[in-house]
From TrEMBL:
Protein name: aldehyde dehydrogenase (NAD(+))
Molecular function GO labels: aldehyde dehydrogenase (NAD+) activity
GO biological-process terms attached to the record: carboxylic acid metabolic process
Locations listed in the record: Mitochondrion matrix
Catalytic activity: an aldehyde + NAD(+) + H2O = a carboxylate + NADH + 2 H(+)
Primary gene name: LOC116196591
Organism listed in the record: Punica granatum (Pomegranate)
Residue numbers annotated as active site: 345
Domain Aldehyde dehydrogenase: 106-568
InterPro entries assigned: Ald_DH/histidinol_DH, Ald_DH_C, Ald_DH_CS_CYS, Ald_DH_CS_GLU, Ald_DH_N, Aldehyde_DH_dom
Protein family membership: Belongs to the aldehyde dehydrogenase family.
EC top class, as a word: oxidoreductase
GO cellular component, one term: mitochondrial matrix
EC number: 1.2.1.3
Purpose: Possesses activity on acetaldehyde and glycolaldehyde in vitro.
Amino acid sequence: MQFWPIGNKLEETELGSNALRRKPSYLQFTEDPAIGAFLLAVMTMRRIVSLTSRCSSSAYRLCRFGGFPSWGRGIGSRFSTSAAVEEPISPSVNIENTQLLIDGAFVDAASGKTFSTIDPRTGEIIAHVAEGNQEDVNRAVLAARRAFDNGPWPKMIPYERSCVLLRFADLLEKHRPELASIETWDSGKPYKQAADIEIPMVIRLMRYYAGWADKIHGLTVPSDGQYHAQTLHEPIGVAGQIIPWNFPLLIFAWKIGPALACGNTVVLKTAEQTPLSALYAARLLHEAGLPPGVLNVISGFGPTVGAALCSHMDIDKLAFTGSTETGKNVLGLAAKSNLKPVTLELGGKSPFIICGDADIDKAVEVAHLAVFFNQGQCCCAGSRTFVHESVYDEFVEKAKARAMKRVIGDPFRQDVEQGPQIDSKQFEKIMTYIRSGIESGAKLESGGEQLGSKGFYVQPTVFSDVQDDMLIAKDEIFGPVQSILKYKDLNEVIERANKSHYGLAAGVFTQSIDTANTLTRALRVGSVWVNCYAVFDAAIPFGGYKMSGHGRERGIYSLRNYLQVKAVVQPLKDPAWL
């Protein structure tokens, strides 16, 4: 029987000494000599052009598997040159909105400066975007304050506010292809992910908060005396919001949805890496009937626009999503200015616990998606994969095989599961952590290298024999790197899973309801997914413990971030009852 290697590593075969040798990375086999000879020729061509990448003969299929999409993976899926050789697909969308949005109009930055937003597939410029500064923040806050104090939005009948948000959702649905194209172009995420998962989530979220607009009310409170006491739930005022680059449009909706439903006005800073989709969506919101000044969008950089927003004395509330280190700065600036309340959704290093009785095949797939979805650029990524010792070896082999089948390439291609990382800085950070894992003694099962020579593509990387004190087990990598750790019993894994500065999320895979109950109550995190992962719904709250932040996004809990509670007490004269 002959075994013909295919993949990124070739050993000698009976064809002779002309077999290719590469750095050990991936290894698959076929028993068919004809296929083997053909593949060897293909690999020779790869050597000539010095390219590595991925393609898949399977078609893309979208389904829900534990909260994440699952892409089709045919038998023919393997590394190939196609993703690196093919010219990037040109998006069929025009970039029209690149200015700042202030007081209902798109305007240039006060300084006249612009900055470039980059296509992560190529490193080339997509567009030049207005670069805001302190003066632009002041203009935007003034417009938002005027709209809140004197404008129609907070005084509008709540049902009318609801109608504006519903019209906005309809426009998002109408323009879904354009929004998805912009999101993919600017961030590198797969188009199918943006079009079929994220944009529908944005639409659903806006309709959810539209439904809340006319259901926000206070309480009548019994008192110990002849008094009538009630609470009023009032909009907090001008909200400053800062969104990240990994889910720019989705978190744009997480932020503005509850703020606007409650009757507030907003000044929002986009991430400098991905400013385009929020500007496009903000234009649609004004087409839906949002009054001028209610939503203002400033593009720019953290040390200028972000700091100005956090320090501004006329901002009543801050909401930030991003790294823990930046979150500390946001909190400090808010405290030093006017003690404005701050909601923080920060980093994570989430444990994904595979118990000995788990359905291993399903656990492998969901654990894979928990780490590699969105190129691994998820704050809640299940990047610490704890596996019980009784199934550890089986899990590692299957996790490695699944990673090797992951389809990487131009995110506009239908079959691609993974696009490029956001930029060169993030790419280098990920590669540094991969080198750290190797140097610290973890076993590199797959990946570990750049894919192709253009753009910021990283091979799906799997480490086994990972120890808790390694950086890849402690730090938030924010990339396609899975660290697999072994454990013996529940008490041990609970202690190790909780031994982290972070507490954003966790996954549990078990067939025992008792084990599930034990773990869900013991884990110090804001979300626990049992036999699934990252199931996001408009009504389900999301946020963290410890240094993963405070406050909650989505659901009824997020409304509390944008409301003040006022107690009103007045005497009663000769009441019939108390």
